[in-house]
Design a protein that fits this description.
The chain has a 5-stranded mixed sheet. The chain has a two-stranded antiparallel ribbon with strand order 2-3. A hairpin with a 2-residue loop joins strand 2 (about 20) and strand 3. The termini are close together. It is of the alpha+beta class and about 160 residues long. The protein has helices at about 40-55, 60, 75-85, 110-120, 140; strands at about 1-15, 20, 25, 30, 90-100, 130-135, 145-155. The radius of gyration is 15 Å and the shape is globular. The protein has one domain: 2-C-methyl-D-erythritol 2,4-cyclodiphosphate synthase (60s Ribosomal Protein L30, Chain: A, 2-Layer Sandwich). Bound molecules: the ligand Nc1ccn([C@@H]2O[C@H](COP(=O)(O)O)[C@@H](O)[C@H]2O)c(=O)n1 and 2C-methyl-D-erythritol 2,4-cyclodiphosphate. The ligand Nc1ccn([C@@H]2O[C@H](COP(=O)(O)O)[C@@H](O)[C@H]2O)c(=O)n1 binds near residues 105, 106, 133 and 134. Its cofactor is a divalent metal cation. InterPro entries: MECDP_synthase (IPR003526), MECDP_synthase_CS (IPR020555), MECDP_synthase_sf (IPR036571). Keywords: Isoprene biosynthesis, Lyase, Metal-binding. Pfam families: YgbB.
């Protein structure tokens, strides 16, 4: 049956950390705070996939209280979510991620992010989409206090 899931995540800006979004480290004068590498795009996408499966959220599988996930590469979280789909005999049809921030500009890195997500998901090119929007300088993203991401995932799962 078709199953759809959505995800949303926010991380606070933090100086002195790398900026990793959708599996790609991009040049930026600040990074994101988090227990892991704080890849806000991948976290939202994991929640979309877990949500489509009704298997909880990323914190269920990778609790922030566990030191083994400190500074972890979020690619492993996405591999796990993808593995859960396979374990249920399902496939991922397509995913779509939107990053909400004024800076950094996502456009120059969009194709690299899509390629990396497709690789991690085991999808052909064109099935993983990354988009970006500002919030017109409104709210916490607009003030540059944090970055938000939302995601959707479409699956086909036997039941
Ligand atoms: N961090 C961002 C934000 C936006 N973009 C690109 O700019 C376009 C216009 O943004 P608006 O918020 O004014 O709609 C948007 O469609 C993105 O293509 C970006 O690259 N990085
Ligand atoms: C990714 C995890 C891993 O402990 O921690 P964070 O990097 O803090 O990310 P967040 O999206 O706040 O929470 C989910 C956690 O599972």
């Amino acid at each position: 049956m078709p199953r759809i899931g959505t995800g949303f995540d926010v991380h606070r800006i933090q100086a002195g950390r790398p900026m990793v979004i959708c599996g790609v480290t991009i040049p930026c004068e600040f990074g994101l705070e988090g227990h892991s590498d704080a890849d806000v795009g991948i976290h939202a996408l994991c929640d979309a996939i877990y949500g489509a499966l009704a298997e909880g959220d990323i914190g269920r599988w990778f609790p922030p209280s566990e030191m083994q996930w400190k500074d972890a590469d979020s690619a492993q979280f996405l591999r796990h979510a993808t593995g859960r789909v396979a374990a249920r005999g399902g496939v991922i049809c397509n995913v779509d991620v939107t990053i909400l921030c004024e800076r950094p500009r996502i456009g120059p890195h969009r194709e690299a992010m899509e390629a990396r997500l497709a690789e991690l998901l085991g999808l052909p090119a064109g099935r993983a989409s990354v988009k970006a929007t500002t919030t017109e300088r409104l709210g916490f993203t607009g003030r540059g206090e944090g970055i938000a991401a939302q995601a959707a995932a479409m699956l086909l799962v036997p039941k």
